[in-house]
Amino acid sequence: MRRSEVAVEPHKGRVKRPNGATLWVTPSCNSDIGRFINLLVSMHDMELMLKLKLFEPRKGKKMLIEETIRQFKDCVNDWIQALHQLGEKPTRTAVHRFAYKKLRQKYSQLHTDVLQEAMDLAIETYRAWLNNPNKGKEIPRFDKDCIYFEGRCVKFDRHFISLPLAGKRVWLPMHVPARFKQYLQHKHGRVVLKKVKDEYYVYVSVNIPEPEPYEPRGWFGVDIGIRHIIVVSDAEGEVNWFLNSAIGWKKNMECRISGLQRLKDKGVKKGVWRVLKRFSGKVKNRQSYINHCIAKQLVLMAKMWRYGIAIENPKGLRKGRVGKRNRKLLHKWAYRDLINKIVYKAKLHGVPVVFVNPKGTSRTCSKCGAKGIVKGRIFVCKKCGLKLDRDLNASRNIALRASPRFEKRGFHMEMVI
Ligand SMILES: [Zn+2]
For residue 326, how far is its CA from the centre of ligand 1 (angstroms)? Predict the structure, then answer.
């Protein structure tokens, strides 16, 4: 019997078996209490940051944006000045009382909420500066090309955004990718308008309700590989999935980078550092993009199969589990970023994720549980004769550890009733 199918009388509180043992119930069971816990779990919102590009505004609107950016910058700096005049660690209310009237008059064109946002930003900047032990004598200056808007003073209508700019509210057209449309209907928080190289972007933070994770039919074990980026497998071995496409590319890139580095050290060529800088940015971007693709594929596949995802606990990563030679290889991929992306996408799609203690997963036989040996790429079990790719064996072990029969207390929020 699966644990979620255990019959529980909902209204009696603590359920005791005749022999006095307490029953374990998962939140997704059919009891009232289970439903109540579900409600608590699903009340969490997750915050998404959407980046939307504005279409090139007309000349008049562009000038208005520029003017507002300039005023906002000055306004933040004036708030910082006021904070500094007040002295040691001023409170919000004190600053407000001290300078609001004066600044309200000076920046009469700015929206009230924008003025407030400027104050918050100034307080943030000033506090960070106060806490910095290496601060100079000069008070900080705010010098970014952006405007902060409080969520409630910004409106959206299809692909238009309405912003209260200096003295006037305007509708600006923007590009909304199809996948973002659903998110814009939710409640949004702060909106930031940013100017990057003559183009305008708006950053919108939206709170969307986290979908309730489903009860998984099984688990995909994800092994952080050494020669593959990740290896995915389930406990039965129906899915065996190697993802290694980008390792070769990265090696190639690193060869070129180290070649350039040598040139730079020798001082042979001028301007090598500029090429190097461009290269490092490229590697980072591409890596992040590949991680995004892998995470997306994995999460969508898990959702289709209605499986959960089991990953080894990232805390132990890069420590202990692998030898010196292989540890160097592990450093060559942004695994932390990959795991973060998997977890975040899984949350978005309601796919359950569990972290598993990876200790011994590479040396245990996934078929019989005995200790085996690793010869190069192959894992060999002497007891049952299993011969398998070492990473595949490890990923199956991880999937096994997440399965309910191993009684791992990870994602299953077990409650004693
Ligand atoms: Zn075995």
Answer: 25
Residue labelled with tokens 């990953």: 311
CA 398 to ligand 1 center in whole angstroms: 15
CA–centroid distance, 379 to ligand 1, in Å, is 10
Contact status, residue 3 vs residue 393, Cβ threshold 8 Å: no
387 Cα to the center of ligand 1, angstroms: 9
Contact 397, 361 (CB under 8 A): yes
| Whole-angstrom distance, CA of residue 402 vs CA of residue 310 | 6
**Distance from Cα 364 to the centre of ligand 1, integer Å:** 8
Q: Give tens-digit pLDDT for 269-310.
A: 667 777 777 777 777 788 888 888 889 989 999 999 999 999
Other CB atoms within 10 A of residue 91 CB: 10
The answer to whether 325 and 277 have CB atoms below 8 angstroms apart is: no
The pair phi, psi for residue 274, each rounded to 5°, is: -70, -40
Q: Ligand 1 centroid vs 371 CA: distance in angstroms?
A: 8
Q: Which residue has the higher pLDDT, 183 or 30?
A: 183
Ordered DSSP codes for 383-395:
TT--EEEHHHHHH
Centroid of ligand 1 to alpha carbon of 355 (angstroms): 24
pTM: 0.64
- Evaluate whether 391 touches 226 at the Cβ level (below 8 Å): yes
Q: How far, in Å, from the CA of 389 to the mean position of ligand 1?
A: 13
Query: How high is the pLDDT of residue 328?
Result: 52
With contact defined as beta carbons under 8 Å apart, do 83 and 116 qualify? no
3-class state of residue 285 by DSSP: helix
* Rounded distance from Cα 392 to ligand 1 centre (Å): 14
Tens digit of each residue's pLDDT (9 = 90 or more) over 66-106 = 999 999 999 999 998 888 888 777 788 888 888 888 888 88
For residues 207 and 186, the answer to whether their CB atoms sit within 8 Å is yes
**How many angstroms separate the alpha carbon of residue 327 from the centre of ligand 1?**
27
361 C-alpha to ligand 1 centroid (Å): 13
Residue 399 burial (C-beta neighbours within 10 Å; 0-12, 13-18, 19+): buried
Q: Which of 350, 326, 374 is nearest to 224 (CA)?
A: 326
